[in-house]
C-alpha cells in the first residue's frame, strides 16, 4: 500500500523545487523547459527527495522505504504532479470505461464488459479532490479553466484523451464523471471487429466519407458517438486540411500526424472571473471557415452553434462531420430545430428544416444495450442510417438501414446517391 500522505508531501516539495527552477531559468534568460524536459527534471527531483527521505529515516533510527516502496512512491508523486493522482491506475486500466465520483470516497467504476464495481477513495477529503481537479483544469486544454465557487462547472480533456466533467457547490459533495477514451486511434475495421458495425455498413460509411457527404452521428450519452466520429475521420485522405471545433479538446486528430498531418484543433474558451474573454462554439465555427478548411468537424452540437454549422455545410464545406444527442435517427431533426430556436438567428421551424435538408446528407444512429440475458454484455452498435432527401414543410428522409432482429442495422431501402457511392468503392450487399 502506498502512503498517500507521503505522496502529497513530496509532491509539494518537488513542485516547489520545480517552480524555483522555472523562476531561475526565467531570471537568467534561459528558454522555458519543454513538457518532456520538465518531466525528466521532475523525475530527478523525485529521486533526490526520496533519497533525502531515506537518509532522514535512517538518521531517526527508522527503516527506510524498500526499493519497491520507493518505486511506488516515485510513481505516485509523478502521477500527482503530471497525471491525475490516485485516479492514474484507473486510467491506466484499458478495461475501465467510466469513472463516477460522488465525493472523494464514493467511486464507481464501469468496465468494458458492462460490469460495475465500487473503488477505493481517490482523495483523502473532498477538498483534496477539488484541489486535484483545479490542478488538472490549470494544465489541461489550451487555456486554464477555473473551478471554484464562482465557476462550479468544468469540462476538460485529460492528457490520455478521457473526458472529465465536474461540478461543485451545486451538489452536496463535489461530483466528477470521467469517460474513458479507450480507443484513441480507431478505424472502421476496429468497429467491424467489435461488432459496432457490419462489414457492409463499414464499406457504406467509408464511401460516404470519401464522397464528401455531410454526416451527423446521433445517439445517447456514452453510446460511442465520438469513437465512431474518429473512425469516420480516419477515412479522410491525409492530403485534406481538417479543422475541429470542440467545447473541450477530445477528438485528438492532431495527435496522429501520419493520418492527418494538417489539422487545427479549436477549443471553446470560457469567460474569466470578470466575465471577459469568452469565445463561443458558434464564433469558432465561423472562424474555422476563414482558415481554408477542407472539412470542418464539430465534436458535439449542444447549442446555438448549430445554425452556423449548417450554414457552413451548405457553403462548399462538404464532408463535414458532427455528433448530437438524440433518441433516434428521426428525432435528430427536431433536436436541431430546438437548438436553432435558441440561436441568435431565432430561425423558425420551417426555415430550419430547409437548412437541414440542404446541409445534412446522412444521419447515423448508434446505441448501446446491456444484454443482461446473455451475461450482462454491453453492446454498442449502429442501428439506423437515414438519408435526407429534401424538404416539404418538414425534412424528408428515408431509412436506408433499419434495426434488424438483434438491433444492429440491416439494409432496407436503396440510397438515392448509390451511383456516387459506388464510384467511391461501395458495393451494396442487401438492397
UniProtKB/TrEMBL annotation:
InterPro entries: P-loop_NTPase (IPR027417), T2SS/T4SS_dom (IPR001482), T4SS_GSP_E_ATPase (IPR050921)
Domain Bacterial type II secretion system protein E: from-to ranges: 90-344
Source superkingdom: Bacteria
Name of one Pfam family that matches: T2SSE
Family the UniProt entry places it in: Belongs to the GSP E family.
Name of the protein described by the UniProt record: CpaF family protein
